[in-house]
C-alpha cells in the first residue's frame, strides 16, 4: 500500500513539475525590476515549490523517511552557512540575509519532498524532460522578443536594445539557463540513442530545435558567461558523445550536434541584419570592473577572515572599506553604485560570514563531486558539464538571487544524480506532531507568495502613479515581501510632510531612520534626502558632514555634486509651505524611488 501511495505521489509531483515548467516559471506581471522576490516569476516559483513541498511531505510522519547520504551531508554543511546568522557581535542587519537563508532551507525541504516520491528511472527521465520543457518555453519567449515584439509592447521589452532575455530581465541569466538546457538536450539524446526510429523522431526534432535555437540565442544575447559555459559544458560532454558514437555509430547525433554551429551562424547573421545594441569585441578582453571587485572583496575577507562583516551588511561594508582603501591608494578609481553582491558566490559568503560559510560551501561542492565519483567516468563528466554553466555564472554574477528557476533546476538535476547513483538512507518515522510545522511551512509559503503577487501589483501601481497617496501604502496586502521599499515609501511621505510643516523632530527622525537604513541598503539618494532634511532642521554642520561622507563613498554620483546640491538648496529656501506633499517633488526633486542593488557590473 505504501509503494502504491508513493507511486501515486510521484505521478502527482511530476504533473506539478510539468505545470511549473510550462506555466508557473514564465509568469510576467508589471513590476519594479530588481532581484529575488522583487520579480513576479520568482514569487510564483516559490509558490509552486511550496505546493510541491506540501504534497511531498504531507504524510511524512506515517512512514520512515527515505533520504540519502548526500542530503544528510548537505544539511550538516548548511548548518555552517546558518552559523554566522547567530553571531552576537556583528549581526545588527542579519535580517537582510533571512530571505536567502530561508531559500536555502526551502530548497532542502523541496529536495526531501522529491525523495519521498521514489521516482523510478523513467520518472527521473521525465523530470529532466520537464526541465528541458521549461528551457524550450524560454527559448520561444526569447525568439518572440527578438523577432516579433514591436515598440510599445505590453511586456516593457526594449525593442531598441533587442536583448532576448526571456522572463529573466537580463542577458546572462537567460544565457546560463538556456545553455544548461542545451547540454541537457545532448545528454538526453545520448540516453535515447538506441531507441527505435519512430519513437525517437519527435524527441530528436525537439533536441535539435533546442540546440539550434539555443546556439542562436547565446550569440544574440552576447553573454560571455553563457558562451563560456556552453564551450566547457560541451567539452565535458565529449567523452560520453564519443562513447555513444563508438557503440551505436549513429549519424543522427552528429547531424543534431551540427545544428549548434548552424545556430551560431544564424545568430551572427541576426546581429548584423537586425537593429540592436551590439557589444564591442573588447568585452572578451575586459572584466567590466570585476577584477577590482574581486581584489577588494579578497582584501575584505583577509581583514576579517573568521567572522566576516556580518550577514546582510556586504554593500555598506564594501563601500566603506573601498573608500578607506581608495584614500590610501593614489590613482585608485571609484566603483559603480548599488552593488549588493561581489559577483562571486564563495566570496560573498566569506565576506559576510567569514570562514564558517566558506567551509560550508566547499563541503557542499565536495559532496557533489563525491556523489559523481560513484558515476561511470564519461557519464560523470557529462553531469559536470550540465552543471557547469550555472556554476560558472555563480562565480561571475549572482544567478540564484536573480532567478529562482536556476535554484530549482540545480536541485532537480542533483536529485536525479543522487537518486540514480547516491547511497540511500532510511530514517525513523518522524513524530506525529512534526507534520504540523512541515505543513505550515508549505502552506504558509503558498499563502505568502500568493499575497506577495498581489502586493507586487499594488506597489507597482503605486510607484507608477503620478499623484501618489500615502493611503495606498496601507492597502498593500503583504508588506513583508517588500519590507525595505515599503519602509522607504512610508518615510519618504514623512520627509515630505516634515519639510512642508517645518517639523524639526520629524526631520531628524527621518535622518535617524536613513542612517539605519544605509547600514544594509546604502543609496546616494538617501544621503541627498538626509542632507536636505538636516538643512531644513537647522543643522548645517551635520548636513555638511553627512554630505562629505556621501561624496567620500560615492565620488562619481552626479546627484551629490555641487551644482545639484546648490539647486536643491536654492529651491529649499524658496519652498512654499502651501504646497501639497504630492507637489513637493516638482519643486525639490527628492530621491523618491529606491533603486534595487542589481550590481554595477551586472
Write the layout of secondary structure elements.
Blueprint: H1 2-22, H2 40-57, E1 65-68, H3 69-82, H4 98-117, H5 121-147, H6 171-191, H7 197-221, H8 224-248, H9 251-257, H10 259-273, H11 290-303, H12 314-328, H13 345-353, H14 355-373, H15 377-396, H16 399-402, H17 404-421, E2 424-427, H18 435-464, H19 471-474, H20 483-501, H21 504-517, H22 524-536, H23 540-553, H24 562-573, H25 584-587
Antiparallel strand pairs: 1-2
Helix pairs in contact: 1-2, 1-5, 2-4, 2-18, 3-4, 3-14, 4-17, 5-6, 5-7, 5-17, 6-7, 6-8, 6-15, 7-10, 8-15, 11-13, 13-14, 20-21, 21-22, 22-23, 22-24
Structure description:
- The mean pLDDT is 90.
- 43% of the residues are buried.
- Helix 5 packs across helix 7 and helix 13 runs antiparallel to helix 14.
- The protein has 25 helices and two strands.
- Helices cover 67% and strands 1% of the residues.
- A two-stranded antiparallel sheet has the order 1-2.
- The chain is globular, with a radius of gyration of 26 Å.
- By secondary structure, the chain is mainly α.
The proportion of residues in beta strands is under 5%
Instruction: Give the % helix.
Output: 55-70%
On the 0 to 100 scale, the average pLDDT is 90
Using the CA coordinates, give the radius of gyration.
Answer: 26 Å
Q: How is the biggest beta sheet arranged?
A: 2 strands, antiparallel
Give the strand order of the largest sheet, numbering strands 1, 2, ... along the chain.
Answer: 1-2
Amino acid at each position: 500500500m505504501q509503494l502504491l501511495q508513493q507511486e501515486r505521489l510521484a505521478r502527482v509531483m511530476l504533473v506539478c513539475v510539468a505545470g511549473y515548467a510550462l506555466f508557473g516559471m514564465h509568469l510576467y506581471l508589471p513590476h519594479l525590476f530588481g532581484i529575488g522576490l522583487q520579480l513576479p516569476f520568482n514569487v510564483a516559483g516559490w509558490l509552486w515549490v511550496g505546493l510541491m513541498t506540501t504534497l511531498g511531505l504531507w504524510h511524512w510522519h506515517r512512514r520512515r523517511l527515505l533520504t540519502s547520504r548526500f542530503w544528510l551531508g548537505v544539511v550538516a554543511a548548511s548548518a555552517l552557512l546558518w552559523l554566522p546568522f547567530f553571531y552576537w557581535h556583528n549581526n545588527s542587519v542579519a535580517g537582510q540575509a533571512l530571505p536567502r537563508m530561508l531559500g536555502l532551507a526551502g530548497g532542502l525541504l523541496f529536495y526531501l519532498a522529491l525523495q519521498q516520491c521514489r521516482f523510478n528511472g523513467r520518472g527521473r527521465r521525465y523530470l529532466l524532460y520537464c526541465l528541458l520543457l521549461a528551457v524550450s518555453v524560454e527559448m520561444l519567449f526569447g525568439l518572440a522578443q527578438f523577432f516579433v515584439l514591436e515598440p510599445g509592447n505590453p511586456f516593457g521589452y526594449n525593442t531598441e536594445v533587442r536583448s532576448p532575455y526571456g522572463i529573466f530581465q537580463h542577458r546572462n541569466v537567460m544565457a546560463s539557463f538556456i545553455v544548461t538546457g542545451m547540454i541537457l538536450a545532448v545528454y538526453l539524446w545520448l540516453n535515447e540513442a538506441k531507441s527505435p526510429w519512430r519513437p525517437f523522431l519527435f524527441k530528436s526534432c525537439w533536441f535539435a530545435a533546442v540546440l539550434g535555437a539555443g546556439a542562436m540565442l547565446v550569440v544574440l544575447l552576447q553573454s560571455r558567461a553563457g558562451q563560456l559555459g556552453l564551450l566547457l559544458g560541451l567539452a565535458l560532454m565529449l567523452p560520453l558523445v564519443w562513447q555513444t558514437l563508438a557503440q551505436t555509430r549513429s549519424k543522427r547525433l552528429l547531424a543534431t550536434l551540427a545544428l549548434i554551429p548552424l545556430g551560431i551562424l544564424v545568430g551572427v547573421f541576426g546581429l548584423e541584419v537586425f537593429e540592436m545594441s551590439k557589444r564591442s569585441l573588447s568585452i572578451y578582453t575586459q572584466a567590466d570592473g570585476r577584477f577590482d571587485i574581486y581584489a577588494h572583496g579578497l582584501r575584505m575577507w583577509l581583514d576579517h577572515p573568521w567572522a566576516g562583516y556580518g550577514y546582510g551588511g556586504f554593500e555598506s561594508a564594501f563601500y566603506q572599506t573601498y573608500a578607506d582603501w581608495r584614500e590610501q591608494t593614489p590613482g585608485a578609481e571609484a566603483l559603480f553604485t548599488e552593488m549588493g553582491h561581489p559577483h562571486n558566490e564563495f566570496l560573498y559568503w566569506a565576506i559576510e560570514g567569514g570562514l564558517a560559510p566558506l567551509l560550508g560551501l566547499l563541503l557542499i561542492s565536495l559532496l557533489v563531486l563525491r556523489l559523481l565519483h560513484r558515476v561511470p567516468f564519461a557519464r560523470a563528466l557529462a553531469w559536470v558539464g550540465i552543471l557547469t554553466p550555472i556554476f560558472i555564472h555563480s562565480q561571475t554574477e549572482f544567478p540564484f538571487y536573480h532567478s529562482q528557476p536556476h535554484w530549482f533546476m540545480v536541485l532537480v538535476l542533483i536529485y536525479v544524480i543522487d537518486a540514480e547513483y547516491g547511497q540511500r538512507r532510511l530514517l525513523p518515522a518522524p513524530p506525529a506532531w512534526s507534520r504540523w510545522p512541515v505543513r505550515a511551512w508549505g502552506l504558509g509559503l503558498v499563502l505568502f507568495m500568493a499575497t506577495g503577487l498581489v502586493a507586487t501589483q499594488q506597489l507597482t501601481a503605486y510607484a507608477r502613479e503620478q499623484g501618489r497617496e500615502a493611503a495606498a501604502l496601507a492597502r498593500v496586502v503583504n508588506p513583508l515581501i517588500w519590507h525595505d521599499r515599503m519602509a522607504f515609501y512610508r518615510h519618504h511621505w514623512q520627509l515630505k510632510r516634515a519639510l512642508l510643516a517645518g517639523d524639526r523632530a520629524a526631520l531628524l527622525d527621518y535622518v535617524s531612520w536613513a542612517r539605519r537604513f544605509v547600514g544594509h541598503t546604502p543609496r546616494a539618494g538617501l544621503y541627498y534626502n538626509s542632507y536636505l532634511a538636516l538643512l531644513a532642521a537647522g543643522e548645517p554642520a551635520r548636513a555638511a558632514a553627512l554630505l562629505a561622507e556621501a561624496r567620500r563613498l560615492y565620488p562619481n554620483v552626479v546627484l551629490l555634486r555641487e551644482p545639484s546640491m546648490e539647486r536643491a538648496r536654492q529651491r529649499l529656501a524658496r519652498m512654499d509651505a502651501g504646497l501639497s506633499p504630492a507637489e513637493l517633488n516638482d519643486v525639490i526633486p527628492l530621491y523618491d524611488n529606491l533603486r534595487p542593488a542589481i550590481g554595477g557590473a551586472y
